C-alpha cells in the first residue's frame, strides 16, 4: 500500500501506530500581517467575548517516517494567531492541533458531544477533546503528554474520569483546513454511567453559574445516526464512527479512509 502525503487538503483519518513530536520555530510575520491579525482577533472577540488569547500549540506539518509512523511538527503560539485564517490572502497562518477521545459503549456506539453556545464552535458535534497547551519549560510534548491532555478533556467535558494510561493511541485526523487531531481510544463504558456522569457534570457547572463546554451528548453507531443529530459536525467525525464500526465488526478497513486517505 502506498503511503500518501499527509499534506492533502482533504479531511481524513490516518492509521497511525507511532507518533513522534518535534518542536519547530514559528513562522515570522510581517508588520502588515501582524496588524491584520490583531484586527481580525479584535473583531472575533467582539463577536464572541469568551475568546481569550492564551498559549496554545499549533501544527506545523505531518510527515511519514515509516509504515503507520508519523512525525508531527509543532509550534508554540497563542490563540490570536488563529485569527490569521480570517485574513484574505494570509499565508503564514498555522492550523490547530488537538487531542480527543474515542469513547465507546459496550454495545458499540461512540459518544459525541455538541458544543455549547459560548464556545468557539457553538452547536458543532465532535468528540470530547480540545486544543493542546504547550508544555512547561524543559518538559516534553510527546504522546504521553497528549494522552494526559485527552484524559483531562474527557473528564472536563463529560465527567468520565479515565486514567491516562488506559487511553490507547488510535489514529490521527487531518482536517480540510489542515488541522491535526490525535485520537485516543478509551475503554468501553456502560451507557447509564456515561449519561449519569454527564448529567452530574452539567448540574455542577450550572450550580457554579458556568455553562458546560458540551450542552448535549449522543451515542451513535453509524454515519446515518450522525446525520440524524442535525447541525454542524467536525469533518473527521463520520470517518471515526465508520472506522470504529468496521473494527468492531471485523470488516476490512476502507482504504479510502486509512493510509490512502491522505488526511
Automatic annotation (TrEMBL):
Keywords recorded for this protein, A-Z: Hydrolase
Nudix hydrolase domain segment(s): 92-247
A Pfam family recorded for this sequence: NUDIX
Stored InterPro entries: NUDIX_hydrolase-like_dom_sf, NUDIX_hydrolase_dom
GO molecular function term, any single one: hydrolase activity
Source organism superkingdom: Bacteria
Region (Disordered): 117-136
Gene3D superfamilies given in the database record: Nucleoside Triphosphate Pyrophosphohydrolase
Protein name (record): NUDIX hydrolase
Organism whose genome encodes this protein: Microtetraspora malaysiensis
Source lineage: Bacteria, Bacillati, Actinomycetota, Actinomycetes, Streptosporangiales
Amino acid at each position: 500500500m502506498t503511503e500518501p502525503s499527509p499534506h492533502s487538503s482533504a479531511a481524513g483519518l490516518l492509521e497511525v501506530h507511532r507518533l513522534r513530536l518535534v518542536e519547530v520555530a514559528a513562522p515570522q510575520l510581517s508588520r502588515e500581517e501582524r496588524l491584520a491579525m490583531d484586527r481580525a482577533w479584535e473583531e472575533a472577540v467582539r463577536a464572541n467575548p469568551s475568546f481569550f488569547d492564551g498559549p496554545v500549540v499549533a501544527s506545523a506539518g505531518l510527515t511519514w517516517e515509516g509504515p503507520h509512523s508519523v512525525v508531527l511538527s509543532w509550534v508554540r503560539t497563542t490563540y490570536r494567531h488563529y485569527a490569521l485564517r480570517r485574513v484574505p490572502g494570509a499565508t503564514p497562518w498555522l492550523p490547530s492541533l488537538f487531542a480527543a477521545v474515542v469513547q465507546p459503549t459496550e454495545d458499540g456506539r461512540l459518544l459525541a458531544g455538541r458544543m455549547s453556545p459560548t464556545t468557539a464552535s457553538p452547536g458543532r458535534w465532535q468528540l470530547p477533546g480540545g486544543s493542546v497547551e504547550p508544555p512547561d519549560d524543559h518538559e516534553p510534548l510527546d504522546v504521553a503528554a497528549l494522552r494526559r491532555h485527552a484524559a483531562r478533556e474527557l473528564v472536563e467535558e463529560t465527567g468520565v474520569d479515565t486514567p491516562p494510561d488506559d487511553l490507547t493511541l488510535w489514529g490521527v485526523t487531518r482536517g480540510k483546513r489542515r488541522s491535526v487531531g490525535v485520537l485516543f481510544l478509551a475503554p468501553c463504558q456502560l451507557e447509564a454511567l456515561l449519561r449519569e456522569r454527564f448529567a452530574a457534570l452539567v448540574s455542577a457547572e450550572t450550580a457554579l453559574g458556568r455553562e458546560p463546554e458540551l450542552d448535549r451528548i449522543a451515542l451513535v453507531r453509524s454515519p446515518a445516526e450522525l446525520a440524524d443529530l442535525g447541525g454542524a459536525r467536525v469533518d473527521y467525525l463520520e470517518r471515526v464512527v465508520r472506522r470504529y464500526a468496521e473494527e468492531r465488526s471485523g470488516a476490512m478497513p476502507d482504504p479510502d479512509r486509512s493510509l490512502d486517505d491522505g488526511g
